[in-house]
Amino acid sequence: MAKAKHDVEVLEKCPTGIRGLDEITKGGLPKGRPTLICGSAGCGKTLFAMEFLMRGARDYGEPGVFMAFEETPEDLAKNFSSLGFDLSDMISRGLIATDHVKIERSELEETGEYDLEGLFIRLGSAIDAIGAKRVVLDTIEALFSGLSNTAILRAELRRLFHWLKDRGMTAIVTGESGEKTLTRYGLEEYVADCVILLDFRIQEQLSTRRLRIIKYRGSAHGSDEYPFLIDESGFSILPITSLGLDYPVSSERISTGVLKLDGMLEGKGFHRGGTILVSGTAGTGKTSLAATFAVAACRRGERCLYFAFEESPSQIIRNMGSIGIDLARWVKKGLLKFHAARPSLYGLEMHLLTFHNMIEEFKPQVLIVDPISNLSAAGTVSEVKSILTRLVDYLKMNNISTFLTDLTHFTGSLEHTSEEISSLIDTWLLLRDIELNGERNRGLYILKSRGMAHSNQIQEFLLSNQGIGLIDIYTGSGEVLTGSARATQEAAEKAAELASWREVDRRLREQERKKNALEAKILALRAEFDVETQEVLLMAEEEKKRQAIREEDRLDMLHLRKGKPAAPQAKRSKRSGKGE
Amino acid sequence: MKAVASGKKKKAKTDPTEEIWNLRLYVTDQTRKSLTAVANLKKICEEHLAGKYRIEVIDLLKNPQFAKEDQIIAIPTLVKKLPEPLRKIIGDMADTERVLVGLDIRSISG
C-alpha cells in the first residue's frame, strides 16, 4: 500500500452515471480519491452512494465495495432493489461486495492501544476479492459512537483515507451534518478533494431536495444549489445543465401553423429550436395558437409533446375541435402526446423530472407547455425562473422548439410575465383584448423576435370553425378599431371616399363647362371685333371717297369763278364752308 | 472487589465443565501492539483463570475471512466466545482491571 497514485498532474474523473451529476462536476468525482457526501438524516446520502456503486459496476465496469456501518445486509438489499438494482445478483456476479460492520458498544471493552487494522483488512480483502475500483463507506461516523478513543479514531481515519488513495479507490464517504459543521465529527478535515452537500427542505408543504458541491479541488464545477430527485429510477440531479450557452443553433424555420403569422415573421415562421412565448389574459386564444402550432408540427411529420397544466387532454381535444383543429388524429398517429398534471401536484423538481423523462422517452421536436404561469403554484418566482432557465437550456441543447403560453393577469402590464423569463424567450407573441363599443376582440402582435425582421403590426385575431385567422386591423384616423367597429368604420370610410370622388368629378365637369363657355365668349367677342374693324375700314374708305369728291367740287368751283377778284373769293369760300 | 472475584472463582470451581473461557485473540503479524496484547492476556489468564481458559491467537492478515465473521475492526481484539454473553475487548490489554471486566471476571462496580 505504498504506491503513491495521488500525485497525478491532471485530475482524472470517475463518471458516476448519476443523472445530472457528471454534467455539473464536469465528468464525475475525482478518480482514485475519496469524496465526502454529507447531509442531514434522510437526505439521500446512502442512495447516492449506492447508485454510484451500482452504476459503476454495471455501466462502467468498475466493481465496488459497499461497507455499511448502519444498515444490515437485508436492509441494504431492500434499499438497492428500491432503485431497481438486484443486489444479490450483482454480488453473485462478483460486481459488488458488501460488508456490514456492526459495532456494539455494549459488548465492547477498550483497554490500551489499538488500531483499526481489522477494518483495513476487511476492506482490503473485499476489494481484492472482486477487483474493486470503487468503495463506499456508509457512514464511517458510526465508529465514533462505537469507540471512545477519538484520538486513535482520528489518526486511523486519516490513515484510512490515505490508504484508499494509495490503492486508487474512488471512494464515497458519507457523513451526517452536525449543528454548525458539515459533519458531526469533522470528516471534511480528512477528505480534502471533494465535498458534496445534500439538503432536504420542506417549503410550503412541498419537499425539495438540493445538492451543492461545496468543494472540488482542482476542478471547475457548478456552484449552485441543484434540485434533485429520488424516484424509482434512482437519483436525478435536475435540470441537466444550465452551465453553458454554447448550444448549436439552427437557422431552419418552421411554420407557426398560421399563414398570416408566418407572414409577420418574414414569411417563414419561427426558428427551429427557438423558444416561443405567447402571453395574454384569459381567453385570448393562447391554447388555440399552441394547438395550431402543434398540428403544424405533426403535419411536417414531427413529434410534439404537449404539457397541459390547466385542462385535461380530452378537454383540449374537444375544444380545439370546435375551431376546426383536429388533434385526436395526431394523437392516434402517435405524433402528438399529451401529459396533463396539476402544477400543485408535486414540487417543481418533480415537474422538471417529468419533463426530462418524457422528452428523453418521446424525443419530440416540438414541446408545448400550457401554461407555464401555473408552475408558480409549485414554487417561488425565482425557483420557477431557475427551473425554466434550465429547462430552456436543455431544450435548446436538443434543438427542440418550445412553445410556452403564459397567462397574464388583467391588472398590470401585459408585457410583464409572471416568471420574468423574457431573456429566455426568442419570439414573444402577445395576445391582448381590445375592448371597444361594447365588444371584446383579440389582437395579436409580436413583442420581439430575435434574429429576424418581424412585423410591427397589430393583427386582429379571429377564431372561427376554420381555425385561426389574422386580419389587418383598422388603423386609420389615429385610432385602432376591431370587430364590428372596424367593419363599420371601413364601410363609412368607403362611402365617404365615394362621395368625395363624386364631388371631384362634378367640379371637374363644371370647370370643363366654364372653359367651354369662356371659349365661346372669346369667339363671340372676336367676331364682334371683326365686324367693328370692317365698319371702321368701310368708313375710312367712304371718307376717302368723300374727300376726293369734295376736292373735285372745289376745283369745279374754282373753275367756275375764274376772272373774279381773289379777296371776295376767299370770303365766299368761308361762308360756303359754314353753310355746310 | 476481591470478594466478588473470589466468589466467581468459587462458582467456577464448583462447575468446571461449563466455565471454560473460550477466547480468541485477533492480531496482525508480529506488531508491537499484538505482541503486547498476547503477553498481557496470557498473564491475566494465568493469574485469574488458571486451567479454565483456552486462547486461540489468529493472525487476521492470514485469515481475513474471520474479520467479517467476528465483526473485527480493531486490532488487537479479544473475543470472548464463552461463557455467554459474547464480549469483545480491544486494545493491547494494558489495563488489567478493564480486561477482567470485559471477561466478566470482575464487575464494573467493583
Q: Please give the CATH class of chain B.
A: Alpha Beta
Biggest pleated sheet of chain B? 4 strands, mixed
CATH top level assignment of the largest domain in chain A: Alpha Beta
Q: Please tell me the CATH architecture of chain B by its name.
A: 3-Layer(aba) Sandwich
Q: What's the name of the CATH homologous superfamily of chain B?
A: Glutaredoxin
Helical residues, percent of chain A: 25-40%
Distance between the termini of chain A: 171 Å
Q: How many discrete structural domains of chain B?
A: 1
Strand content of chain A: 15-25%
CA-CA gap between termini of chain B: 5 Å
CATH architecture of the largest domain in chain A: 3-Layer(aba) Sandwich
Helix/strand order of chain B, N-terminal first = HEHEHEEH
What does this structure look like?
The complex is a heterodimer of chains A (580) and B (110). Helix content of chain A is 40%, strand content 23%. Chain A has 580 residues and is of the alpha/beta class. Chain A folds into two domains: 216 residues, P-loop containing nucleotide triphosphate hydrolases (Rossmann fold), CATH 3.40.50; 221 residues, Rossmann fold. In chain A, the strands form four sheets. Chain A has a nine-stranded mixed β-sheet, with helices on both faces. In chain A, strands 17-16-18-19-15-20-21-22-23 form a nine-stranded mixed β-sheet, with helices on both faces. In chain A, helix 12 packs parallel to helix 13. The N terminus and C terminus of chain A are likely disordered. Chain B has 110 residues and is an alpha+beta fold. Chain B has a single domain, classed as Glutaredoxin, CATH 3.40.30.10. Chain B has four helices and four strands, in the order H-E-H-E-H-E-E-H. In chain B, a hairpin with a 4-residue loop joins strand 3 and strand 4. Chain B is globular and about 30 Å long. The N terminus of chain B is likely disordered. The interface between A and B is medium-sized, with 23 and 34 residues.
